[in-house]
């Protein structure tokens, strides 16, 4: 049977989480309609053995690919290479899908032929499984159940990886590849296919369940500080991509500019949270001024008020913005 969807599961030392992840996909009544490809990225724990158990239970739908460690981007690159489904979705090995939502989602994918399918997702607390946030990706309720022509309609919201399901042919035919041995490549995945996407369907339902608060997660503050060079590398890769863009419909170009602006905002976040590190102001000012000079459309697409404040004061208020962030972060942890 032709597969409607390929779910690629990047997996590195996720033995504590992978059972839940794969169980969320193991729904007998629809299992023949999609495939799950677990990409074991050189794990040193029982990740591969857990995945292999699902491969034995569902030999035509679950597949294990073992590889040397190459980072998140390398797992997605391999998943794109082997994907057989009409659509392609990334499900990180420490996250999971809502099994009650998945059948309706799969059946809708059977009907569709849009380039992109957008679905809502939840952020869930790592330890308690409490719902932190339910993120609606449609800008208004009327978008749900509709197909949007992205060459004529500008999406104001930028869409994270958790919400995206992309036609596999777009990824394969245009040789979409992410940086390897690097964090934050989800930013590349969210942007690189956009020049080739023309239509998007908005699906009502919280399909993806995104785990937040796990120790070592690349989005936590300490990891972002430690890996700031990798974050900058991804920003540079996106800027090189942007520089090579040919003519594009204005809504798509604007969307790409705002998506890259989000990564620039991430640079600000890193330097703000580094506090009184002696070179913070100088480094941040240099990065931001280079962006203003070379990529003014991206520079001006940043919308955070604290960024406008820093720019207006020549970045001298960085210690004050750090103190405000520290107080808010402390309050959040306490309450």
Can you give a write-up of this model?
With 335 residues, this protein is of the alpha/beta class. It folds into 2 domains: 5-212, Alpha-Beta Complex (Spore Coat Polysaccharide Biosynthesis Protein SpsA, Chain A); 221-334. Helix content is 42%, strand content 19%. The chain has 13 helices and 10 strands. Strands 1, 2, 3, 4, 5, 6, 7, 8, 9 and 10 form a 10-stranded mixed β-sheet that branches. α8 packs antiparallel against α9. The model has no long low-confidence stretch (mean pLDDT 94).
Q: What's this entry about, in short?
A:
Helix content is 42%, strand content 19%. The chain is an alpha/beta fold. It has two domains: 5-212, Spore Coat Polysaccharide Biosynthesis Protein SpsA, Chain A, CATH 3.90.550; 221-334.
